Amino acid sequence: MTAFTAKSTAEQVAKHFSNAINSKSGTITFNWPLPQLALTIATVLVTGVTQGTLGAEVALRISHHQPANLVLAGRSLSALNITKSTIEAANPVSVTLLELDLASQASVRAAARTANSYPFTIDVLINNAGIMAVPYTKTAEGLERQWATNHIGHFLFTNLIMPKLRASRSTARIVNVSSAGHKRSDIRWDDVGFGGGERYDKWAAYGQTKTANMLFSVALAKLGGVESFSCYPGRVRTNLVNSIPLEELVAAGWLHPDGSLVEDPKLKWKTIPEGAATIVAAAFDPELAKANGGYVVDSQLANDEAALYALDEKAAVRLWKLSEKIIGEKFLDA
Ligand SMILES: NC(=O)c1ccc[n+]([C@@H]2O[C@H](COP(=O)([O-])OP(=O)(O)OC[C@H]3O[C@@H](n4cnc5c(N)ncnc54)[C@H](OP(=O)(O)O)[C@@H]3O)[C@@H](O)[C@H]2O)c1
């Protein structure tokens, strides 16, 4: 067990796991000048990396430890370019941008085609992007938006690039960024779409997607050939609350009417570097390998902090099948 705490920062955790970051190895194969000349390289792909978010901090701190390739994925090329410039100004690292709108299966499929054409494997995939408690809307494919973005988009993208992950010379690792908010709702098995909006509860909708993130890691671990962990970064002021009216955040006791944080120790606010630390640990702590499918909090394995339904293997398989049915495509059997 590492000595990390809730106050550890992404910089400290990345430094601790520096070897894992720069030696996680995939291969790139050339047929010239020698047939099958293989170079060892490492690639990390992070979704949701707009400045001011947990994903941007994760990518920046990882970049200090020379992964051979860092792929930044997100729905806005201009936002991706800003993060790329920040990273390249700090480090000599190769940054690739990948346009990916997780709310659109068409966009996810196009992004996966691009990722599958890279001349390198993907060794670490960090499914971090997300939205929280947004008003009810449907995506182009008719799905409730949080379900589509937080779960279905990542489920589809991960499965479509599975050959790239499984080709990693080390065992590839997939991190699904979840939340303590998973305790707000189990999967609503018979009504994931909230009756087309009629029964919509934006917090239950967020909760079921965060449960789905955890069950997805359980299923990936069961699938074999990859490692997967879900994690809770902690309560952090980012852009995530931007869709929630200030009055609601004040009524919840999180913010003051002027928008500043309520500094109640019970709320356990973390800074962005403290929140990002747990994501970096979930991606690189080699010790976690023995608890494949587990849930990480404060940079430590914390399955005892999870709702039972969110780590249940039968539920994980059921979710896999339900997700395949929603997408209309079958993948490897979890
Ligand atoms: N902050 C917290 O307190 C907290 C607590 C628990 C869990 N989490 C989890 O941590 C993760 C990161 O959250 P955060 O706090 O960093 O939130 P954030 O500041 O709102 O960042 C979310 C990121 O996801 C991207 N994104 C949203 N919709 C997308 C889509 N359709 N396609 C592709 N990318 C999309 C955003 O891009 P745009 O800039 O284009 O919108 C942004 O880069 C989420 O999964 C969240 O559930 C956060």
Report on the architecture of this protein.
The protein has helices at 10-16, 18-23, 54-63, 77-90, 105-116, 145-160, 162-166, 202-223, 246-251, 272-284, 313-327, and strands at 26-30, 37-41, 43-47, 69-74, 94-99, 124-127, 173-177, 227-232, 235-236, 269-270, 295-297, 300-301. With 334 residues, the chain is of the alpha/beta class. It has a single domain, classed as NAD(P)-binding Rossmann-like Domain (Rossmann fold). The strands form 3 sheets. The protein has an 8-stranded mixed sheet, with helices on both faces. Helix 3 packs parallel to helix 4. The structure holds NADP nicotinamide-adenine-dinucleotide phosphate. NADP nicotinamide-adenine-dinucleotide phosphate binds at residues 47-50, 53-55, 74-76, 79, 100-103, 128-132, 149, 177, 179, 232-233, 235-236, 238-240.
User: Could you give the count of β-strands?
Assistant: 12
Bound molecules: NADP nicotinamide-adenine-dinucleotide phosphate
* Poorly predicted tracts of residues: 25-41
* The CATH topology: Rossmann fold
Annotated CATH architecture: 3-Layer(aba) Sandwich
Rg, alpha carbons: 19 Å
> In which range does the helix fraction lie?
25-40%
Which H/E pattern describes the elements? HHEEEHEHEHEHHEHEEHEHEEH
CATH fourth-tier homologous superfamily: NAD(P)-binding Rossmann-like Domain
